[in-house]
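Protein Entry — a single chain follows
Fields — amino acid sequence, structure tokens
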Amino acid sequence: MRSEPLAWPPVSAQAASLLEEAADLLVLHRDFAAAVEKCEAGCDSLGPGPGSSAEVKCSLCVVGIQALAEMNRWREVLSWVLQYYHVPEHLPPKVLELCILLYSKVREPQVMLEVGSSWLRDQTNKSLPEYGSLLELYLLHVLLPLGQFEGAEELVRGCDVFDSEQRLAFLGTICESRCQWTQREEMHSAAEEQQDAATETVLGALSQKLLTMLTLLRRALRSMSSHFCLLPYKKMLLATFLLYLVVVRLDPASPTSLPFIYKLVQLFRQAWAAVFSPIHRPPIQD
């Protein structure tokens, strides 16, 4: 007898048709936004039931993840998937694997830290055949890049899937990664110390230059103050008073005010000469 093709339920058949359309849009037409819309329509048409519907739903999410990544919308991937599975423990292994690899590639492994931990702690997931490979993936792409070495060792020691040889190999990998992490930290600290020393040297040189400039400025101000102490204050006061008389009390256009203006000009000339002429020292007598 010839075997008949598998008959999909009506809802699953509709979702499977949407899956084919989404895959064509992703691979052939490169229309990623339309592919995501088809995947969303297919997932919305499916319920949370197991069996063939769950497989179609997982495939729709896989295509949707790839389309979102192609549009550089990787930040939306986890929340987009969880709207159909609601909790991390219910994520299919293939979907979890793609999420771990995606966020590791974009250097954001911390996004999957709690999600992966929740999935691996679930007792139902521990019986899945993909559990060991996902634990290894989570270890290498999430825990170790984040420096979670104690958590990684605890996870490996408490895993019943690994035999003693595999457990020792993973513990050796964790130890090696810890050593590399420590070396990078030491190199980073040494680079920071060198940068701080260089900064202190530059600041010291700038401080020394600033101190020299302030010293010169103080000497200049002291010289100017000692120079201005020699000004004939009486003549300056008299010139100010005459200026007041000329501007306020006298009419500069009147002929009677000309002697006062002439006297004022003479006083200002003497004051100008006193300010800007060199200080004459008394001659040295033999």
Observations:
- The chain has a mean pLDDT of 81.
